[in-house]
Specification:
The protein has about 375 residues and is α/β, with parallel strands linked by helices. The protein is built from 15 helices and 13 strands. About 40% of the residues lie in helices and about 15% in strands. A seven-stranded mixed β-sheet has the order 2-8-7-6-5-3-4, with helices on both faces. Strands 9-10-13-12 form a four-stranded antiparallel β-sheet. The structure holds pyridoxal-5'-phosphate.
Length: about 375
C-alpha cells in the first residue's frame, strides 16, 4: 500500500505533523546560490583553524579537575574578568542558572528587566530549579537605573519574599543589542551591594558590549559578583560558556553544575575552541557591528520597513514591518524562499544578527533580496 510521508497533510494546516511541509515550502529558492543566515550569531560553525586547535587540544578528565585546556581557559577567564575563579559550562542558559542558584535560596526574589533572557528564554529555570520569583525593573531597551532597582527591594517582612539578586543583561538581546552605560551598571551593582543584594551580569554578548563601548570586560563587570559569558555566540566557538566570580561562589557553581549534568569529561576540545576564539575573534566583532549598521541603513531605506537606526549599537538589528506587508512570520516565509533567514520577534518585528560568516557583500545581497520580497509582496497585497 502506498503511504504518504507523515508530514503530508491537508493544506493550510500549520501545526503538528504538517509543520515540516510548510518548512519544505519555505526552503530557499535554488536560484539563490547561497543562503544568508541572519537568524543568530549562534549559527556559526567552527572555522578550519579553530578545528585544528581543537584537534591539538591536550585533554584530561575535567570532572576530576585535570583537563589542562579547561583549567587554562578557566584561569584565563578569571583573569580577563578580574574575578578569583571561573567554571566552564555547556551553555549560557546553564551559566545563568548556576549563577542564580548559587547565590539564592528557594523563595528568594530576583530583580531583572522585564525583557530579560533569563525570564523569557531559559524555560523558567530560575523558578523550576532555583525556586525564585522575579520582580521587574522597567527601563528603556533592557536597561534600568539604581533608583528603580532600589525601589523594588522588599522590606524585611514575614509576608514578603527576600530580595536577593539583581540580574543585568549586557548586551541586552531583546533590548535590540543595547550596551549598558557603564556608570549606570556600576551604580546598580554598588547600590544593590549597599542593600545586601548579590549582582549577576548575563554577559552572553559581553564582548560585543566591550568592543562597542571600548571598555575592557574586566572594567564592565568590576562591581558584579558573578558574570556569565558565551563563546558560542559572536565569538564563533561551537559550544560553551563561562561563569566567573569569587572562589566560594564558583565552588558552589561547580558543585551545582555536576547536579545538573553539566560536568563534562574531556571537554578540553571545547575549551581549545574557546581559547582560539578569545585569541582571534574578539576584535573582529567590530566588523559585525559595522555590518549590522549597514544592514540597518539598507533595510530602513526600503519602503514599508523601519529600523530605529540609533538603537543598532552592536550586532543585532530589529526592524518593523508596515502592517500592509502582513505579519512578520509570513514575511519570513518569503525571505526564507529568497535565501535570507531571520527570526520574528513579535507580530510585526523581525530580528537579524550579523556574525563571523556574514560579509559586507552578503549584507548588501541580503538587503537586495529583502527589497525584492517587499516589492513582490506589495503586488499581492501583503504576506499571508
Ligand atoms: C542574552 C542571552 N543570555 C543567555 C543566552 C543563552 O545561551 P545558550 O543558548 O548558550 O543557552 C542567550 C542565547 O541567545 C542570550 O542571548
Amino acid at each position: 500500500m502506498f503511504m504518504l510521508p507523515r508530514f503530508w497533510g491537508p493544506s493550510g494546516a500549520s501545526q503538528g505533523p504538517c509543520r515540516p511541509l510548510l518548512r519544505f515550502f519555505a526552503m530557499p529558492d535554488p536560484k539563490h546560490n547561497s543562503t544568508i543566515d541572519l537568524r543568530s550569531d549562534t549559527v556559526t560553525k567552527p572555522t578550519q583553524p579553530m578545528l585544528d586547535a581543537m584537534m591539538r587540544a591536550k585533554v584530561g578528565d575535567d570532572v576530576l579537575g585535570d583537563d589542562p585546556t579547561i583549567n587554562a581557559l578557566q584561569d584565563r577567564c578569571a583573569e580577563l574578568f578580574g574575578k578569583a575563579a571561573a567554571c566552564f559550562v555547556p551553555s549560557g542558559t546553564m551559566a545563568n542558572l548556576l549563577a542564580i542558584r548559587s547565590q539564592t535560596e528557594p523563595g528568594d526574589e530576583i530583580i531583572c528587566h522585564p525583557e530579560s533572557h533569563i525570564y523569557h528564554y531559559e524555560t523558567g529555570g530560575y523558578a523550576a530549579v532555583a525556586g525564585c520569583s522575579i520582580r521587574f525593573a522597567p527601563g528603556e531597551r533592557g536597561v534600568f537605573d539604581a533608583n528603580t532597582m532600589e525601589s523594588l527591594i522588599r522590606w524585611d517582612d514575614d509576608h514578603c519574599p527576600r530580595t536577593r539578586l539583581v540580574s543585568m543583561e549586557n548586551t541586552h538581546n531583546r533590548g535590540r543589542g543595547r550596551v549598558w552605560p557603564i556608570e549606570q551598571l556600576h551604580n546598580v551593582c554598588q547600590r544593590a551591594h549597599a542593600r545586601g543584594l548579590r549582582t549577576h551580569i548575563d554577559g552572553a554578548r559581553i564582548w560585543n558590549a566591550s568592543i562597542a563601548s571600548g571598555n575592557p570586560v574586566r572594567q564592565i563587570v568590576q562591581h558584579a559578583d558573578t558574570v556569565s559569558a558565551c563563546f558560542s555566540k559572536g565569538l564563533g566557538a561551537p559550544v560553551g560558556s563561562i561563569v566567573c566570580g569569587e572562589q566560594k561562589t564558583i565552588a558552589r557553581v561547580r558543585h551545582l553544575r555536576k547536579m545538573l549534568g553539566g560536568a563534562m569529561r574531556q571537554s578540553g576540545v571545547l575549551a581549545a575552541a574557546a581559547m582560539y576564539a578569545l585569541d582571534h575573534h574578539i576584535n573582529r566583532l567590530a566588523d559585525d557591528h559595522a555590518n549590522a549598521q549597514r544592514f540597518a541603513d539598507g533595510i530602513d531605506a526600503i519602503d514599508g520597513l523601519t529600523v530605529d537606526r540609533k538603537a543598532v549599537e552592536t550586532n543585532l538589528v530589529y526592524f518593523d514591518l508596515d502592517a500592509s506587508l502582513g505579519a512578520a512570520r509570513n514575511f519570513l516565509k518569503q525571505s526564507t524562499a529568497a535565501g535570507v533567514l531571520m527570526l520574528d520577534e513579535g507580530l510585526q518585528t523581525v530580528r537579524a544578527v550579523t556574525h563571523l560568516h556574514i560579509t559586507r557583500a552578503m549584507v548588501d545581497d541580503a538587503v537586495a533580496r529583502i527589497a525584492s520580497c517587499v516589492s513582490a509582496l506589495r503586488q499581492v497585497g501583503g504576506a499571508r
